[in-house]
Amino acid sequence: MSIHQILKQYWGYDQFRPFQEEIIQSVLEGKDTLALLPTGGGKSVCYQVPALARDGLCLVVSPLIALIKDQVENLKQKGIPALAIYSGMHFIEIRKILQNGSNGPFKFLYVSPERLETALFQEYLPALHINLLAVDEAHCISQWGYDFRPTYLRIANLREQLPGVPVLAVTASATRTVQDDIITQLQFAGDHRRFEPSFERPNLSYSVFQVASKQQKLLEILKNVAGTSIVYCKSRKRTKEVAELLNRNGIQSDHYHAGLTHEERSKRQDNWFRNKTRVMVCTNAFGMGIDKPDVRTVVHFDLPDCIENYYQEAGRAGRDGKRAYAVLLTGGRETDELVQQTGIRYPEPEEIKSIYIGLMNHLQVAAGTGEGQSFDLDLAGFASLFKFNLLQVTYALKALEQEGLVSFNEMFFKPSTVVFNATREMIDDTGNMYPGLDYLIKGLLRSYEGIFDFPATINENRLSSFLQTDAGIIRNDLNKLHELGIIDYNAQKDSPQILLLKNRMYADSYSFNIAGYRNRKAAYEKRVAAMISYIELDSECRSRYIGRYFDAPVDRSCGICDNCINKKEVEISTDEFEAISAKIYQLVQPAPVPVQSLISNWKGKSRIRAWKVIDFLVGENKLKTDGKGSIGV
């Protein structure tokens, strides 16, 4: 099929979105390609369509397990066979997936970056018939980016093993420095292409409000602007508090963060997506992969720490092209606190070492061992047990992740899976020897197609309903079949996971790249400074500022951000200037008048215009000040 036929059959669209077709053609021509598309710009289509237009399998590297699962599920719903490998999966399960990828009709294999260099993956790679290497969230490969992940650096090693296979790197936002670094790190060929659409969003109005009460301002915004909204907060506690505030004031809301169970997150997200809930109050754990076009407002209740995150999150508003609002609320000493965050986000290297040693002891990992092992990790429990500050532990883990020592996933969820290990004869014998388990064997075989060849994702509660048996009994009997070796049953996990990417270092050989760490800290400070500058803008168009930050200047002012609107409202026509001047001369002619008394003759926006006229007349020496706060001729 042609790319347009593929788009129509699987996505139902007659036309591509801006830049999608050009990016797809570049990939089909075999060129390495970097594509920057804003949130909601359809990045995944840019590698999914060309992969479907060719024989073979598309290898997609993505750091976000939740997003990988969403993408795979969406493809399956479209009738497109797809697979995924990520941290926390068992050896047998991964081997089955790779076998299916080598021999089956699958078109996509999603892989988290730490899996790329495992011996098992390398063993199967030549048999996978890769037609395209797609790198999602490509900014993660650059240490100058806002979300550097050293495991991404391993992607380049694949290029030698995949000669002639083009690379498509996609991201929503990256400065020119980060873009150049992506191209270098992924070893793009000299004839590579770069697509960088404008960062202008003509329907999105950006505003910043310095307020005494964020709660009151939020209520005012949501009462004045109808429709679906997202409210971003920095802490889990704050999401719940703000959602309760909105509900008390008649605005149907819910809260969302990584600490909720997978079922609870899915339910709340679905209710919001279906407009059963109007406002989602959330941390930045919410939003990835969500393409809801009719979001009218995105409000940042707390300050984001960089323009990249803000632009991506704010960009979830107005994807339908209709007027939408991105509002940032600030007050008090928040910008000072943002500057002070540097010390919290970048603990001293000695503190990081202490946390690393404590973590290895907590996980009972012996020196020289541990690579490839994953563990459930109760972060708060570990911090409390070893008397570490929780924030300190969180950011120390981030530093260890950026050093390539561990991978920490706070939103890890792995559903239950079952695959049969036994032959049909053995299964029949088991049913005869253990008649109490026969119902479950038959139920699994009836319910899950391909369960002999591939680990099937099961839901014990649905199985319970189908078999009219208590879910607890189902789980118990699944474990019995597992112990008998008839099935490989891996029960659901819904807890934070830490994966060790390297063996535990011996105490006398502990190493940490302090120079690189300091450079990343300096880059973070630069991003914070840019965010504060955005907050404090008082005249420049906010859309133009964002474009300039990303080294992609916007040609014209947006006309709809708060600064553009304020500028319009204080522009003075010649007739209005003359009318205000005449009134000023009339008021000050008899004797000098105190400025406050003079300006009180105008109200609202007219007062701002009167100030401008007074400033002009004083500057031209047509009015004089007496040094005591009065103005005369």
Written account of the structure:
With 633 residues, this protein is α/β, with parallel strands linked by helices. The protein folds into five domains: 3-195, 3-Layer(aba) Sandwich (Rossmann fold), CATH 3.40.50.300; 204-332 and 537-565, P-loop containing nucleotide triphosphate hydrolases (Rossmann fold), CATH 3.40.50; 338-413 and 495-524, Arc Repressor Mutant, subunit A, CATH 1.10.10; 417-490; 570-632. It contains 26 helices and 22 strands. A seven-stranded parallel beta sheet has the order 3-4-2-5-6-1-7, sandwiched between helices. Strands 8-13-12-9-11-10 form a six-stranded parallel beta sheet, with helices on both faces. A three-stranded antiparallel beta sheet has the order 14-19-15. β10 (253-256), α11 and β11 form a beta-alpha-beta unit. The model has no long low-confidence stretch (mean pLDDT 90).
Question: What's this model, at a glance?
Answer:
Helix content is 44%, strand content 15%. It is α/β, with parallel strands linked by helices.
